[in-house]
Design brief:
mainly alpha; 4 helices; 53% helix
Length: 118
């Protein structure tokens, strides 16, 4: 389901990833009104954009193991699972793509060293 015609090779991979995430969100949780707007104009409101970004970050958290217990002693740094790494890559791309499309996102949903999602 594509809401807008293909935007060509000039469109970034992040924007394409954001559009895929919007499509998935609309198919799963969008209201009839939001879905109609997305299909007609290719736009969603900032609240829906934040829901899309939050869902991408929640997917990362879903595959992130809990921190070790302080009672267990020193723990070696572990390498993230390939599944977690891929979900993190996607969440970063979705957040960046939504920003490229002009949506305002709360700073906690943006990737970065000092931000909660990053």
């Amino acid at each position: 389901m594509t809401a807008e015609p293909e935007h060509g090779p000039a469109e970034s991979a992040d924007v394409r990833e954001a559009r895929r995430a919007i499509d998935e969100h609309m198919g799963r949780a969008g209201t009839d009104e939001e879905l109609a707007r997305w299909k007609d104009s290719g736009r969603i409101d900032d609240r829906v954009a934040e829901e899309v970004a939050r869902a991408a970050w929640d997917a990362v958290q879903d595959v992130t193991p809990p921190p070790p217990s302080p009672r267990s002693g020193p723990v070696e740094k572990s390498v993230p699972s390939p599944q977690r790494a891929e979900r993190h890559r996607r969440a970063v791309a979705v957040a960046r793509g939504l920003r490229e499309l002009g949506y305002h996102l709360d700073e906690t949903l943006l990737p970065g060293p000092d931000m909660a999602a990053g």
